[in-house]
Amino acid sequence: MKSAFSLSHATATDVPRLVRLVNRAYRGDASRQGWTTEAHLLDGQRIDEDGLREMLAVPGAAFLMCLDEKGELLGSFYAHATGPKVYLGMLAVEPTGQAQGVGKFLIKAAEDYGRQHGCTVSKMTVISVRHELLAYYERQGYRQTGATEPFPTDPRFGIPKQPLTLLVLEKPLA
């Protein structure tokens, strides 16, 4: 893992660059440069500025940002601490900078965020047909719980090209 990474918590002024990063990582041609693209599964955007601001305003929530030594945004991860669980979502890494440890850095930071807020379990949802992503999270210690959630129907989060289901993954925070 690269030691030049630093962690920052996003503020309202970071919203435009976070929206750019998340949409580049998940959708469109830019996302195809990395291995985490959803462009083959969904059309449209992944998030807009209003949606990201709403997420940032949730009590107990934070967008964690991984920055390089120049302060450039390399990746981000949403963490929402609620009771004994921290929900993690929307891990985004700049497509041209994937497979360099940014994701692992952010996962660890998000789990630490949960621990700092008294959480004992980390939870996330992953699209069921994202086999490579499920395998990645399993290598990070996450396990499928057997539970599923419906994929959001709000077009602000994308328009599915096929029926999609979310699998619930959890990891104990020791």
UniProtKB/TrEMBL annotation:
Cite the SUPFAM superfamilies for this sequence.
Answer: Acyl-CoA N-acyltransferases (Nat)
Q: Tell me the keywords, alphabetical order.
A: Acyltransferase, Transferase
Against InterPro entries, the record matches this protein to: Acyl_CoA_acyltransferase, Bact_Acetyltransf, GNAT_dom
What Pfam families does the annotation carry? Acetyltransf_10 (PF13673)
* Keyword Acyltransferase in record: yes
The N-acetyltransferase domain is annotated at 5-174
Q: Name one GO molecular function term.
A: acyltransferase activity, transferring groups other than amino-acyl groups
Superkingdom is Bacteria
What is the protein's name according to its record? GNAT family N-acetyltransferase
From what organism does this protein derive? Hymenobacter properus
